[in-house]
Design brief:
single chain; alpha+beta
Length: about 200
Protein backbone atom coordinates (compact mmCIF):
# COMPACT_ATOMS: atom_id res chain seq x y z
CA UNK A 1 0.00 0.00 0.00
CA UNK A 2 1.21 3.53 -0.69
CA UNK A 3 -0.32 6.85 0.19
CA UNK A 4 0.86 10.37 -0.67
CA UNK A 5 -0.71 13.10 1.46
CA UNK A 6 -0.14 16.09 3.74
CA UNK A 7 -0.07 15.93 7.52
CA UNK A 8 -0.29 18.48 10.32
CA UNK A 9 2.72 17.12 12.21
CA UNK A 10 4.90 14.34 10.79
CA UNK A 11 6.49 13.30 14.09
CA UNK A 12 3.15 13.23 15.93
CA UNK A 13 1.67 11.02 13.22
CA UNK A 14 4.66 8.65 13.36
CA UNK A 15 4.42 8.35 17.14
CA UNK A 16 0.73 7.48 16.75
CA UNK A 17 1.55 4.80 14.17
CA UNK A 18 4.15 3.25 16.48
CA UNK A 19 1.52 2.96 19.22
CA UNK A 20 -0.95 1.24 16.88
CA UNK A 21 1.03 -1.75 15.71
CA UNK A 22 -1.93 -4.01 16.53
CA UNK A 23 -4.16 -2.19 14.05
CA UNK A 24 -1.46 -2.39 11.38
CA UNK A 25 -0.89 -6.06 12.14
CA UNK A 26 -4.63 -6.69 11.77
CA UNK A 27 -4.49 -5.60 8.11
CA UNK A 28 -1.46 -7.84 7.52
CA UNK A 29 1.20 -5.11 7.64
CA UNK A 30 4.81 -6.10 8.32
CA UNK A 31 6.73 -2.88 7.57
CA UNK A 32 5.89 0.82 7.39
CA UNK A 33 8.22 3.31 5.71
CA UNK A 34 7.74 7.07 5.79
CA UNK A 35 9.39 9.51 3.39
CA UNK A 36 9.22 13.24 4.04
CA UNK A 37 9.12 15.67 1.11
CA UNK A 38 12.22 17.78 0.55
CA UNK A 39 10.49 20.64 -1.26
CA UNK A 40 6.88 20.59 0.02
CA UNK A 41 6.34 21.10 3.75
CA UNK A 42 4.15 18.48 5.49
CA UNK A 43 3.86 16.24 2.41
CA UNK A 44 4.69 12.59 3.10
CA UNK A 45 4.74 9.32 1.22
CA UNK A 46 3.96 6.29 3.35
CA UNK A 47 4.41 2.73 2.11
CA UNK A 48 3.06 -0.28 4.01
CA UNK A 49 4.22 -3.78 3.20
CA UNK A 50 1.31 -6.24 3.42
CA UNK A 51 1.76 -10.01 3.75
CA UNK A 52 -0.92 -10.95 1.23
CA UNK A 53 -2.83 -9.20 -1.50
CA UNK A 54 -5.67 -7.89 0.63
CA UNK A 55 -8.24 -5.91 -1.28
CA UNK A 56 -8.18 -2.16 -0.85
CA UNK A 57 -11.81 -2.34 0.25
CA UNK A 58 -10.89 -4.58 3.18
CA UNK A 59 -8.11 -2.26 4.26
CA UNK A 60 -10.38 0.77 4.02
CA UNK A 61 -12.90 -0.93 6.27
CA UNK A 62 -10.33 -0.97 9.06
CA UNK A 63 -11.13 1.64 11.76
CA UNK A 64 -7.37 2.13 12.18
CA UNK A 65 -7.13 3.62 8.67
CA UNK A 66 -9.81 6.24 9.37
CA UNK A 67 -8.24 7.08 12.72
CA UNK A 68 -4.82 7.33 11.10
CA UNK A 69 -5.94 9.91 8.57
CA UNK A 70 -7.88 11.76 11.25
CA UNK A 71 -4.83 12.04 13.51
CA UNK A 72 -2.78 13.11 10.48
CA UNK A 73 -5.02 16.11 9.92
CA UNK A 74 -6.08 15.02 6.43
CA UNK A 75 -9.42 16.52 5.33
CA UNK A 76 -10.34 13.43 3.31
CA UNK A 77 -8.98 9.94 2.89
CA UNK A 78 -6.42 10.39 0.11
CA UNK A 79 -6.09 7.92 -2.78
CA UNK A 80 -4.41 4.71 -1.68
CA UNK A 81 -2.35 2.67 -4.12
CA UNK A 82 -2.54 -1.09 -3.59
CA UNK A 83 -0.20 -3.17 -5.70
CA UNK A 84 2.26 -6.02 -5.91
CA UNK A 85 5.96 -6.02 -6.68
CA UNK A 86 6.89 -6.33 -10.34
CA UNK A 87 10.63 -5.99 -9.74
CA UNK A 88 13.14 -4.43 -7.38
CA UNK A 89 16.39 -3.46 -9.07
CA UNK A 90 19.51 -2.55 -7.09
CA UNK A 91 22.01 -0.90 -9.42
CA UNK A 92 24.70 -1.21 -6.74
CA UNK A 93 23.95 -4.83 -5.81
CA UNK A 94 24.70 -5.73 -2.24
CA UNK A 95 24.98 -2.12 -1.07
CA UNK A 96 24.51 -1.70 2.70
CA UNK A 97 20.96 -0.89 3.78
CA UNK A 98 21.67 2.57 5.13
CA UNK A 99 18.35 4.29 4.58
CA UNK A 100 18.45 7.59 6.45
CA UNK A 101 19.03 10.61 4.24
CA UNK A 102 18.52 8.76 0.96
CA UNK A 103 16.52 10.68 -1.64
CA UNK A 104 13.50 8.95 -3.17
CA UNK A 105 11.44 10.01 -6.18
CA UNK A 106 8.00 8.42 -6.26
CA UNK A 107 5.63 8.46 -9.23
CA UNK A 108 2.16 6.96 -9.64
CA UNK A 109 1.31 6.70 -13.31
CA UNK A 110 -0.45 4.73 -16.02
CA UNK A 111 1.56 2.89 -18.67
CA UNK A 112 0.50 1.10 -21.84
CA UNK A 113 2.13 -2.18 -20.94
CA UNK A 114 4.12 -3.17 -17.84
CA UNK A 115 6.34 -5.84 -19.52
CA UNK A 116 7.29 -3.31 -22.22
CA UNK A 117 8.02 -0.74 -19.51
CA UNK A 118 10.35 -3.21 -17.77
CA UNK A 119 12.17 -3.97 -21.03
CA UNK A 120 12.86 -0.25 -21.47
CA UNK A 121 14.03 0.02 -17.87
CA UNK A 122 16.47 -2.88 -18.27
CA UNK A 123 17.76 -1.51 -21.56
CA UNK A 124 18.42 1.85 -19.88
CA UNK A 125 20.04 0.69 -16.62
CA UNK A 126 23.48 2.08 -17.44
CA UNK A 127 21.92 5.48 -18.18
CA UNK A 128 19.87 5.33 -14.96
CA UNK A 129 23.08 4.66 -13.05
CA UNK A 130 24.83 7.61 -14.70
CA UNK A 131 21.85 9.76 -13.69
CA UNK A 132 22.46 8.94 -10.03
CA UNK A 133 19.67 6.35 -9.69
CA UNK A 134 20.65 3.69 -7.16
CA UNK A 135 17.52 1.56 -6.93
CA UNK A 136 14.25 1.17 -8.81
CA UNK A 137 11.15 -0.46 -7.34
CA UNK A 138 8.21 -1.11 -9.65
CA UNK A 139 4.74 -2.04 -8.35
CA UNK A 140 1.65 -2.89 -10.42
CA UNK A 141 -1.81 -1.99 -9.06
CA UNK A 142 -3.96 -4.95 -8.06
CA UNK A 143 -7.10 -3.40 -9.53
CA UNK A 144 -5.61 -1.95 -12.73
CA UNK A 145 -2.91 -3.72 -14.74
CA UNK A 146 -1.78 -0.43 -16.31
CA UNK A 147 -1.37 1.56 -13.10
CA UNK A 148 2.09 1.54 -11.54
CA UNK A 149 3.94 3.01 -8.61
CA UNK A 150 7.63 3.50 -9.26
CA UNK A 151 10.07 4.47 -6.54
CA UNK A 152 13.60 5.48 -7.46
CA UNK A 153 16.31 5.92 -4.88
CA UNK A 154 18.71 8.60 -6.10
CA UNK A 155 22.17 9.48 -4.84
CA UNK A 156 21.43 13.02 -3.64
CA UNK A 157 19.11 16.00 -4.02
CA UNK A 158 21.10 17.58 -6.86
CA UNK A 159 20.98 14.35 -8.88
CA UNK A 160 17.26 14.04 -8.18
CA UNK A 161 16.60 17.55 -9.46
CA UNK A 162 18.65 16.89 -12.60
CA UNK A 163 16.86 13.56 -13.19
CA UNK A 164 13.43 15.18 -12.82
CA UNK A 165 14.27 18.02 -15.19
CA UNK A 166 15.94 15.74 -17.76
CA UNK A 167 14.59 12.19 -17.33
CA UNK A 168 15.88 9.38 -19.50
CA UNK A 169 13.60 8.15 -22.29
CA UNK A 170 13.46 4.79 -20.46
CA UNK A 171 11.75 6.58 -17.55
CA UNK A 172 8.56 7.32 -19.48
CA UNK A 173 6.57 7.45 -16.24
CA UNK A 174 8.34 10.67 -15.22
CA UNK A 175 6.63 12.72 -17.92
CA UNK A 176 3.09 11.63 -16.99
CA UNK A 177 3.41 12.32 -13.26
CA UNK A 178 0.60 14.49 -11.93
CA UNK A 179 -1.69 13.87 -14.90
CA UNK A 180 -5.30 12.78 -14.41
CA UNK A 181 -6.03 11.35 -10.97
CA UNK A 182 -2.39 10.94 -10.00
CA UNK A 183 -0.52 13.13 -7.54
CA UNK A 184 2.49 15.09 -8.75
CA UNK A 185 5.84 13.32 -8.37
CA UNK A 186 7.02 12.98 -4.82
CA UNK A 187 10.60 13.92 -3.95
CA UNK A 188 11.62 13.19 -0.40
CA UNK A 189 14.04 11.69 2.04
CA UNK A 190 13.73 8.49 4.00
CA UNK A 191 12.55 9.53 7.47
CA UNK A 192 11.26 6.49 9.40
CA UNK A 193 11.10 2.70 9.18
CA UNK A 194 9.05 0.46 11.47
CA UNK A 195 8.87 -3.31 11.62
CA UNK A 196 5.31 -3.96 12.81
CA UNK A 197 6.21 -7.20 14.60
CA UNK A 198 9.00 -5.62 16.64
CA UNK A 199 7.93 -3.78 19.76
CA UNK A 200 9.70 -0.68 21.05
Amino acid sequence: LACDFRVDDVERMWEWLKKHRDGLSAIGAHHVVLYESIWEPRRVLVTIGIRQATSIREVLRSPAIFEWFDISGADDIPPIFGGEVVEKIDLYGGSPERHVGRVVVGVMSSVDDVPTLMEKVHDGLDRFKRGGVRKIWVYRALDDGHEVLILQEIADEASARQWIEHPDAAAEWMTSAGMGPYPSRFVGRFAHLMSVDEQG
